[in-house]
Amino acid sequence: MGELLRVAAPVGSCIAAFAALVVTILVWRRSRLTARLEVVRSLHAELISDSAAKARHTLGSLHWQNREINPDGTERGEVMCAYFAMLWRFEQLHAGRKVLLEEANGRRDVALKMLDEQVYTHVAEYVCTFPGIKEKLTESNRDDAVFDGAYVKTFDQLRASLADSFDDPEKKARLGAHTNNTEKCNCKCHEVSAKPPLPPQRPHGASV
Ligand SMILES: [Zn+2]
Ligand SMILES: [Zn+2]
Asked: pLDDT by residue (tens digit) across 121-133?
């Protein structure tokens, strides 16, 4: 009996220590996932904030109506602001997504899958919106170039990384690199006939 107790005591301690370790790992995993989901929530929130919705409306109206920008008045400045504001939002999304990916050693865990599903439509829409708006900005004033190189590159990295994450061929196609060949671009905006600019908008209170 004494012999049995002498052997059983250390085994019992080992089992207790192992159980404690398992519990610690489970708690750590849960709190890690909670933290990752909170990052996902804040990254997505930035894309659907009131200011993002305003910028999206400014760019989306021009994009979907295929309308030119009036170089006189305030419109061109507003479009330029909205264009860069959206590029910076996607830059922030790309940085946050990269950290989440690296932290999980490139594995798409629950948090990453949730983020990718939430941002897919936003990114896919801007694959055509960004080059389309840039063209309109350039055409409306050739003396005022749009210096967006690094931000456009970052958006393209985000687009490509997201495309890699999906198996669905439709999603992959919508996240494909934008092409100037409108027959290959999936966006319906290319079927809309071009419209002239709206009358110039003046700053509030300015005389015509
Ligand atoms: Zn397009
Ligand atoms: Zn389009």
From this structure: 999 999 999 999 9
- Residue pair 114/40 in contact by the 8 Å Cβ criterion: yes
> HSE-up of 206 (CA within 13 Å, CB side)?
8
Low pLDDT (below 70) residues in the chain: 1-2, 4-5, 204-208
| Residue in the structure block whose two tokens are 């997201």 | 162
* Mean pLDDT taken over the chain: 91
Question: Would you list the domain boundaries of the chain?
Answer: 2-191
Cα–ligand 2 centroid distance for 13 (angstroms): 66
Question: Token digits for 175?
Answer: 């996240």
Q: Where are the alpha helices (DSSP H) in the chain?
A: 2-47, 50-65, 75-103, 110-140, 149-165, 169-174
Per-residue b/e over 25-43, b at no fewer than 16 CB within 10 Å?
eeeeeeeeeeebeebbeeb
Ligand in nearest proximity to the CA of 185:
1
Query: How many angstroms does the Cα of residue 36 sit away from the middle of ligand 2?
Result: 33
CA of 101 to the centre of ligand 1 (A): 29
- Whole-model pTM above 0.90? no
